[in-house]
Write a structure and sequence with these properties.
Layout (H helix, E strand, L loop, with lengths): L1 H4 L6 E3 L7 E2 L5 E11 L11 H18 L3 E11 L5 H18 L2 E9 L4 E11 L14 E4 L5 H9 L9 H12 L5 H8 L4 E7 L3 H12 L1 E6 L7 H10 L3 H7 L5 E6 L4 H12 L4 E8 L4 E5 L2 E5 L11
Parallel strand pairs: 4-5, 9-12
Antiparallel strand pairs: 1-2, 3-6, 4-6, 7-10, 7-11, 8-10, 9-11, 12-13
Length: 323
C-alpha cells in the first residue's frame, strides 16, 4: 500500500519497510502523542461512507488532538483490523484518503499493521511537536476568561442524522452537502491551534469531539471552574438551521450535544479577546466566536438566558457510560 501514500516528508528518516520508524525531533520542542480507535457500527457505518472519507476522518480525529495542544503533527502509524467486507481496492482507497490529508498536514505515514478481525477496526496514532512556550492544556483557564470556539457547532451531528432520515426528508442541496461534509470529512484546525497557541492571552485549549456540553465540562473540571454559556451567542449555522428544521430537531441540542465537530474550544484573557479575534478573522476568514465565560465553580456548565442560569448536563458521547 506504500504507493497509495506517496512520498513521505523529509523529517521521516526511516519509514515503511523496516522494523520501526525513525524521524528527526527538534531538541527545542516537546513531543506530543495521541491515539484513537474507530469501530464499525460505533464510530461509523461501513455501508454509509466511502473508504477515502473514512481514511480522512480517521486521521483527522488525531490531528485535531495535536491542534488542541497548539502543536503540529510529524508522523502517524495506522493499524487496521479487516473483515471480508472490504477488499484490497477498498484498502487502497482508504489509504488515499489518509494520504491526501496527511500531505496537507505535512504528516508522514510511518507504518502500522493489518490483521484479520471480527469487525472492521481502525486505530491511528499520531506523534507531533509543540514549542515549549506554546503548548496549551485544558487546565489553564481562569475565572473571567472568554470561552470561544473556532467554528460552527452541530453540523456533523446533523449530517449523521440525515443518513437515517430517509427520502421523505427534503433538505436543500447546499445545506445537505455542508452537514454531511462536516460529518464525513471534518477539517482538523491545525493552523488555528498554532495561532491560538502563539497568543499568550490564550490560556487553555481543547478540541470538541464529544459535544460542547461534554467537552466544556471537561475543560471546566480540569481548570476547577464553571463555564457559563450565553444563550444569545449560541447562533446556529444556516445549514444547521435548515437541516434541523427538515429533521424536526432542535439546533441548540445539536450544538450542545452533537459530536464530531472537531472545532477548538479556547479560554482567552478577556481584555485581549478582541485582539486575538481580529487576528483570527484576518488569518482564517471567519470569526472566533465568543460563547460565554469561565466563572468560579466546581466543574459545571451553565447556560445564561437573559440573566437566568440553567444547568447544562454533559450529554455528549461517552463510551464509559454506554459500556
Amino acid at each position: 500500500m506504500v504507493d497509495a501514500l506517496g512520498a513521505p516528508p523529509r523529517k521521516l528518516r526511516v519509514g515503511i519497510g523496516d522494523d520501526a520508524a525513525a524521524w528527526k525531533v527538534d531538541s527545542h520542542h516537546l513531543s506530543l502523542l495521541t491515539t484513537d480507535m474507530l469501530l464499525d457500527g460505533v464510530h461509523f457505518r461501513l455501508a454509509e461512507t466511502t473508504a477515502s472519507a473514512l481514511g480522512h476522518k480517521a486521521l483527522a480525529q488525531n490531528l485535531s488532538d495535536i491542534a488542541a495542544m497548539g502543536g503540529w503533527p510529524t508522523v502517524a502509524v495506522i493499524a487496521l483490523g479487516l473483515t471480508p467486507a472490504v477488499d484490497e481496492t477498498w484498502v487502497r482507497e482508504f489509504y488515499r484518503g489518509v494520504a491526501a490529508l496527511a500531505k496537507s498536514a505535512r504528516c508522514a505515514i510511518a507504518g502500522g499493521d493489518i490483521v484479520r478481525a471480527p469487525a472492521l477496526i481502525i486505530s491511528v496514532t499520531v506523534a507531533g511537536e509543540v514549542r515549549r512556550t506554546r503548548m496549551r492544556l485544558r487546565s489553564g483557564a481562569r475565572a473571567g476568561d472568554v470561552a470561544a470556539v473556532t467554528g460552527p457547532l452541530g453540523l456533523a451531528a446533523a449530517g449523521l442524522k440525515t443518513l437515517g432520515a430517509g427520502a421523505a426528508v427534503v433538505i436543500d442541496a447546499g445545506s445537505l452537502e455542508a452537514v454531511r461534509a462536516a460529518y464525513f470529512t471534518p477539517q482538523p484546525r491545525l493552523g488555528e491551534g498554532r495561532y491560538l497557541g502563539s497568543q499568550r492571552s490564550v490560556r487553555a485549549l481543547m478540541d470538541i469531539s464529544d459535544g460542547l456540553s461534554t467537552d466544556a465540562t471537561r475543560m471546566a473540571k480540569a481548570s476547577k471552574l464553571d463555564v457559563v454559556l450565553d444563550a444569545a451567542a449560541l447562533v446556529p449555522d444556516r445549514a444547521l438551521t435548515t437541516a434541523a428544521s427538515a429533521l424536526d430537531l432542535d439546533p441548540m441540542d445539536l450544538m450542545l450535544n452533537g459530536g464530531d465537530d472537531y472545532e477548538l474550544l479556547a479560554a482567552i484573557e478577556p481584555r485581549a479577546f478582541k485582539h486575538v479575534a481580529d487576528g483570527f478573522r484576518k488569518r482564517f476568514g471567519r470569526p472566533l466566536a465568543a460563547l460565554g465565560r469561565f466563572a468560579p465553580g466546581d466543574g459545571r456548565v451553565w447556560i445564561d438566558r437573559l440573566g437566568k442560569r440553567e444547568a447544562v448536563a454533559p450529554a455528549g458521547y461517552d463510551h464509559l457510560n454506554r459500556a
